Amino acid sequence: MKHKRTVENLQDSEKRYRRLFESAKDGILILDADTGKVDDVNPYLLRLLGFSYGEISGQHIWELGVFKDIAASKDAFRVLQDNEYIRYDDLPLETRDGHPIEVEFVSNVYTVDHRKVIQCNIRDITARRSAERALGASENKSRNILDNISIGVALISPAMEILELNRRMREWFPGVDLGGRPLCYRALSDPPRTGICDNCPTIRTLRDRAVHEDTTRITRAGVVRDYRIVSSPILNEAGEITAVIEMVEDITERLSLESQFRQAQKMESVGRLAGGVAHDYNNMLSVILGYAELALEKVKRSEPVHDDLQEIFKAAKRSSEVTRQLLGFARKQAIEPRVIDLNENIEGMLKMLRRLLGEDIRLVFRPGEGLKPIRMDPSQLDQILANLCVNARDAIADVGKIIIETDMVTFDKTYCDDHAGFSPGDFVLLAVSDDGCGMDRETREKGFEPFFTTKGIGNGTGLGLSTVYGIVKQNEGFINVYSEPGVGTTFKIYLQFREGGAVENRKVRPAKHPKGHGETILVVEDEIAILNMVRIMLEWLGYTVLTAGAPDEAIRLAEAHAGEIHLLLTDVVMPEMNGRELAERLMVIKPDLKLLFMSGYTADAISYRGVLDEEMCFIKKPFSRSDLAEKVRVALRRG
Fold this sequence. Notes:
Elements (H helix, E strand, L loop, with lengths): L1 H22 L3 E6 L5 E4 L1 H7 L3 H4 L17 H10 L1 E10 L5 E13 L2 E10 L1 H23 L3 E5 L5 E4 L1 H6 L11 H4 L13 H8 L3 E9 L2 E13 L5 E10 L1 H47 L5 H27 L7 E3 L1 H16 L3 E6 L7 E3 L1 H18 L4 E12 L1 H6 L6 E10 L6 H6 L17 H11 L3 E7 L3 E8 L24 E5 L3 H13 L3 E5 L2 H10 L6 E5 L7 H11 L4 E6 L18 E3 L4 H13 L2
Parallel strand pairs: 12-14, 18-19, 18-20, 20-21, 21-22
Antiparallel strand pairs: 1-2, 1-5, 3-4, 4-5, 6-7, 6-10, 8-9, 9-10, 11-13, 14-15, 15-17, 16-17
Helix pairs in contact: 9-10, 9-16, 10-15, 11-12, 12-15, 17-18
């Protein structure tokens, strides 16, 4: 009875094993441990490999195509016999029809009915490996995207530790070791910060799980740069923050450009104001200078009033220099550019500059070789050199040195992209350097603003550098300043050169006032005081003068005048029509009419950016009688 129950139990056990064997979702292969022949194989493995039971049963495992030269080679089989265990975590196989699959292969040796058998458990991991590869490819794709975008990306833990940095962040902040999970505020700054950055958006995101944005300034290797940071939370299924993504943008150049743009707008606004003030001021100075000069002609030198008139005349001349500087800054100064040799013109200025600087300042000129000519009004070059050298002199406390240098320089686009304010191309360089007290950053940034000065009361108008700035811009150049407190300052001016232009010599003023020979001149000016003054000057010079206070009056006068009118001397800015429009109307009536324009500043009505046409005759207000005499004779000689 007992034997019978034992047999029944054994049969039940075998049935349960068989059911498990045949219903298993993993492949099971039973081998004879001595011969390597297949004793049994479950249905799952047959379906997986595409074989029938009869094709596999009784075969040596190394003879089966799917196992050839892989895990169950004779050598591997001997290892299995010796060790009674072998495992392959990722074994590539092929099904009968050649379809590739990946399996996890584990073999154990155990004894059944006093005979050793090998059970091979074979799990199909093809789908899992495919998913893992897809996940890896997705992660690699995400990494490539993050590494190739133009902004920085950082992954920050709730403890403010750096978990990940993309390539741009690694380029901006080299040498950050992520192995020790460094604190972001310490690892990204050099020297390291002792506490969290002010207004840190990540801290706010960690508090309220919202997106935040702010800017911060980071110092690294002595260089200060500005960054915009947008922080976003990463939440788990429970809604807890597991990390914060920081999107980081370097905005240093953008802030610099915005600052330059605001500065340019401010300079432009002040320039318009300065130009308008200078125009009205020049009209008044014209009357003062003109009548003072006429009065000086009428009194003897021995009379006490002569010296008083002379002082009035001198004061008006000095005042006209202030308006000239204002117009230079406003880029409304009337200029008569010529092709000049920069080195020759500087040589001609050195004697005057040395007198201006005094004996304690050594002036050195280092002319560059092979310098190309530039097109510029020589008087503007004089203004630039005088203003820069006087500024340099005032920056030197005792004895010192000022160096003027010239050279040819070339900037490519790459250089200009890295240096705000530069333009690509070839330029003529004019540099003025001193070994004076130098300037700090704040002073440098305000240096070109009109009326800004570091000098004491009464020692400067604050127009010197702003005049230089305006002149350079009017001549389509650009200027940069380099300075260090206690070291000195260098101003570098870059001017466009003129290809193939013949250098023109400076004009020499005549010793005596050229007189007229009764030629008829029509003077048009809406300021009656100036109109009368110009009439008196021209009559004194020997001309016949017709006057009109408005353009319409001038047209009627020209139509009614039977004789020839040799010259039109007209203001530029007037009500009803401007000077150029009036000239065009009058030349229909008097085709041989010569033209001479006058103004406190040149308007677009007769010039482009204040640069006169080569055939244009122009006289700047305020002017003296000698200035007027010379300009009238030049205009009358023009064909």
